[in-house]
Amino acid sequence: MRRLAEAGPATILVEQIPGPGLLAMMVIVPLIFLLPFGNIPTGLLGGISATKLIVPTAFLVMLALARHSFVIHPSTVTLLAFVLLTLPSLILSTSFMPVFLSLVGYLILTNLMINATPSFREFEWICRTYLIATVAVAIFTLLAVVGIFDLGGYLGHTLIDDSWIGVPLVRGTEDSTTGFAPYFVPAVPLALCYLINVRGKWKKLALALCLVVLCAMLLITVARGATVAAFVGCLIMLFFSVSRASLIRVVTIGGPLIVGFLLFAPVLVLYFLTGSMDVRAGEAGFQLLSDKTASTEIHGAVLNAALQLLLVTPPWGWGEGNTNGLIENITGYYLNAHNVYLGIALEFGIPAALVFLGYCAYACRSGYIAASAEADPRRRSLYGAVLGCVVGLLINGLSHEDYVNSMIWCFFGLVFASPGIASLRPGDACIGSAGSTGRAR
């Protein structure tokens, strides 16, 4: 049963989701909500991640209840080719089964996301759920930083570490800031998208506060790569949401601010965390600046070593998990490539890396097609925001191997689903999605 509802100047679909679609939302929405909580659910579940628990369950439920309409997206062929190309490397490693099952899980997860979004309504639900969850995590983290309340302490995973010169350092729901900051890369473009398109001054005020909280988290994590990635994601969203003149103004004003952040973030963070630039803050600030300078130098050395190894990498790669030791032999640092594309090329081989790059390009093309084809400005803005989320995460991958995080695969699924949703007539659902009637456009 479907009905049409008015939403401002445009008429959009409000679908009464049938059984499989409703059940899909019942399993997908909790998964999306738990993503920003990182390692906390894993600790509560005795070492089993929520994704590994929910994804097989959701797959079996949807396959059983919507087996006639469950389809495999064409992008699966590319992702399956990537998985097959990793097999020689995995066979040479000592962690074949865990890594192989994770890759297969990502393949299933992207198709689950596509089949769980038969219309714009479900698409928007998922985006909103992720934003709400990330804002909640950000608020809890800020409360811990200022010393009011650390929720993570009651859940077996403290959100801050104050053992460094008495200054609280944010590790959030992961084990480090570099693992925690990427959760905010998609959240910032989504928050800005809702802020631009929502009506009502109180809603705008609430979303503005959410955006401030999310930006504050990027500030106190001093995650330079994630900050640049979030900014680029916002620019992509604005490209589909505002006039070109407004976009140029954003770049003109926001660009210098981002550069200033990258240069002075350590000092600003220490002032915020200590409340003053006293001796302790001075010591910590000097230490943080030194650490960031050393981090840049180390990453430069690791990048140089990774490029040297790339020139002599066998077609099947050096083997999963072996890159750290090879880089240590050159630099003395036992680190991975800190670059998702180099990391895949070194561990799984250059052919696997090229296929992965093709998969990423396919995802970006799908998002661009959806946003360009959509006539409704609000929907076009959200499609642009999701495309910005994916591009931002891919940019963040230049300094962080984030393909092992389920978050990026969820957004891959959303961006692959968007062209089908954008092409719908009112009253239709995506062909092959849970709840689809199977009618062609």
Summarize the structure.
The chain has about 450 residues and is mainly alpha-helical. It has one domain (about 20-420).
What does it look like?
This protein is mostly helical. It has one domain (18-422). Helix content is 69%, strand content 5%. It is built from 18 helices and 4 strands. It has helices at 19-34, 39-44, 50-65, 75-92, 96-115, 120-145, 151-154, 177-180, 184-197, 201-221, 224-239, 244-274, 279-311, 323-331, 340-348, 350-373, 377-396, 406-422; strands at 2-7, 10-15, 160-164, 167-170. Strands 1-2 form a two-stranded antiparallel sheet. A two-stranded antiparallel ribbon has the order 3-4. Strand 3 and strand 4 form a beta hairpin. The chain is globular. It starts with a strand and ends in a 19-residue tail after the last helix. Residues 1-20, 276-286 and 427-441 have low confidence and may be disordered.
Helix content range: 55-70%
Global mean pLDDT: 78
Class of secondary structure makeup: mainly alpha
Which sequence of SSEs, written as H and E, runs from N to C? EEHHHHHHHEEHHHHHHHHHHH
How many DSSP H or I helices?
18
Write down the overall geometry.
globular
**What is the count of β-strands?**
4
Key features of this structure:
single chain; 441 residues; mainly alpha; two-stranded antiparallel ribbon; two-stranded antiparallel sheet; 18 helices; disordered N terminus; disordered C terminus
Write the layout of secondary structure elements.
Blueprint: E1 2-7, E2 10-15, H1 19-34, H2 39-44, H3 50-65, H4 75-92, H5 96-115, H6 120-145, H7 151-154, E3 160-164, E4 167-170, H8 177-180, H9 184-197, H10 201-221, H11 224-239, H12 244-274, H13 279-311, H14 323-331, H15 340-348, H16 350-373, H17 377-396, H18 406-422
